[in-house]
């Protein structure tokens, strides 16, 4: 029986989400593989001996070193097979600014934005309010704030800097929230998210009844094709593999790329599993498919 180590926890602000993902993965495959769940802290460099007899590592970490390429680079150095995108793609995708620049170069629509590296910098270079502030390298919408005016901006910018040394400021548009899951280079049914609150924030994502979902999203075929094409384009340009989730906004039939997640949540109620279920892929089968892809490359 093959051995799979499931890594979860970590030391990022998304630690709790990671634990839920990791435990769900362990439960799903415990009868198919010899599974070891590893709740890891801040030091991943001591993993090598623990993984000597492991066939594949299932990376159930979110954010921090688990998603920004550092852990992946460590695995590559030690010739350890693992799930998810490689170190280079992970590093690029975690950087929202770099992702937007790649999107812009390839004709994928994006909202106007700028990057700040100083919490006292209020030069917004012509951006129009309202604005959204968010960490450039964060996830789960932690550190995200809506700013109606400059006073709001000054009140919230320091809060966001507590989550990251680099903050993105992006123009806000009232829009539909759409997510495009990708598995093995194939687009799964598009999901529309209906947050109960004003924004699709942390509470909307993870609290019970925080949001409603529709799979597939009720959008016309032309928009669906554009979203699928642009999701695959950014996925391939960055060099992602195995699986990912690409998030968009849709306003008056105009769509805008928000970000790409190389390690999206994989609890039984997360978006990717919801979409996979619509094509008859159970949660267990989805996890097994990702592991099978890791064995191949």
| Tally of DSSP β-strands | 13
User: What share of residues are in beta strands?
Assistant: 15-25%
General form: globular
Largest sheet: 6 strands, antiparallel
The number of domains: 3
Per CATH, the superfamily of the largest domain is: ATP-grasp fold, B domain
Low-pLDDT windows of residues: none
Q: What name does the CATH topology of the largest domain carry?
A: D-amino Acid Aminotransferase, Chain A, domain 1
Q: What is the oligomeric state here?
A: single chain
Distance between the termini: 20 Å
Percentage of helical residues? 25-40%
Helix- and strand-based class?
alpha+beta
Q: Helical stretch count?
A: 9
Considering the chains and any ligands shown, give keywords for the structure.
globular; Dna Ligase, domain 1; 3 domains; Rossmann fold; D-amino Acid Aminotransferase, Chain A, domain 1; 9 helices; six-stranded antiparallel sheet; 297 residues
State the gist of this model:
By secondary structure, the chain is an alpha+beta fold.
Description:
About 35% of the residues lie in helices and about 25% in strands. The two termini are about 20 Å apart. It is an alpha+beta fold and about 300 residues long. It is built from 9 helices and 13 strands. The radius of gyration is 19 Å and the shape is globular. The strands form 3 sheets. Strands 8, 9, 10, 11, 12 and 13 form a 6-stranded antiparallel β-sheet that branches. It has a 4-stranded antiparallel β-sheet with strand order 4-7-5-6, with helices on one face. A 3-stranded parallel β-sheet has the order 2-1-3. Helix 2 runs antiparallel to helix 3 (about 85-95). It has helices spanning about 15-30, 70-75, 85-95, 95-105, 150-160, 200-205, 220-240, 270-275, 285-295; strands at about 5-10, 35-40, 55-60, 115, 130-135, 145, 165-170, 175-185, 185, 190-195, 210-215, 245-250, 255-260. It has 3 domains: about 5-85, Rossmann fold, CATH 3.40.50.20; about 95-110 and about 175-295, 2-Layer Sandwich (D-amino Acid Aminotransferase, Chain A, domain 1), CATH 3.30.470; about 115-170, ATP-grasp fold, A domain (Dna Ligase, domain 1), CATH 3.30.1490.20.
């Amino acid at each position: 029986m093959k051995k799979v180590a499931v890594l979860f926890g970590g030391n990022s602000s998304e630690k709790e989400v990671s634990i839920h993902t990791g435990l769900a993965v362990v439960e799903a495959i415990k009868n198919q593989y010899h599974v070891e769940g590893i709740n890891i802290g801040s030091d991943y460099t001591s993993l090598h001996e623990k993984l000597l007899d492991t066939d594949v590592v299932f990376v159930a970490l979110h954010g921090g070193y688990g998603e920004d390429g550092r852990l992946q680079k460590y695995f590559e150095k030690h010739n350890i097979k693992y799930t998810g995108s490689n170190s280079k793609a992970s590093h690029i995708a975690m950087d929202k600014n770099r992702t937007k620049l790649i999107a812009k170069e390839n004709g994928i629509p994006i909202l106007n934005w700028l990057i700040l590296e100083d919490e006292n910098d209020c030069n917004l270079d012509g951006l129009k309010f309202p604005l959204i502030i968010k960490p450039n390298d964060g996830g789960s919408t932690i550190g995200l704030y809506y700013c109606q005016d400059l006073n709001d901006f000054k009140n919230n910018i320091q809060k966001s800097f507590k989550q990251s040394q680099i903050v993105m400021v992006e123009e806000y548009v009232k829009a539909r929230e759409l997510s495009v899951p990708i598995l093995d280079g194939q687009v799964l049914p598009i999901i529309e998210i209906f947050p109960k609150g004003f924004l699709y924030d942390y509470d909307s994502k993870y609290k019970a009844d925080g949001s409603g979902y529709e799979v597939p999203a009720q959008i016309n075929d032309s928009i669906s094709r554009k979203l699928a094409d642009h999701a695959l384009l950014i996925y391939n340009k960055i060099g992602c593999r195995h699986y990912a989730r690409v998030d968009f906004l849709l306003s008056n039939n105009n769509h805008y790329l928000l970000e790409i997640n190389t390690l999206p949540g994989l609890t039984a109620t997360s978006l990717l599993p919801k979409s996979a279920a619509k094509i008859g892929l159970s949660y267990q089968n989805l996890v097994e498919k990702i592991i099978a892809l890791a064995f191949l490359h």
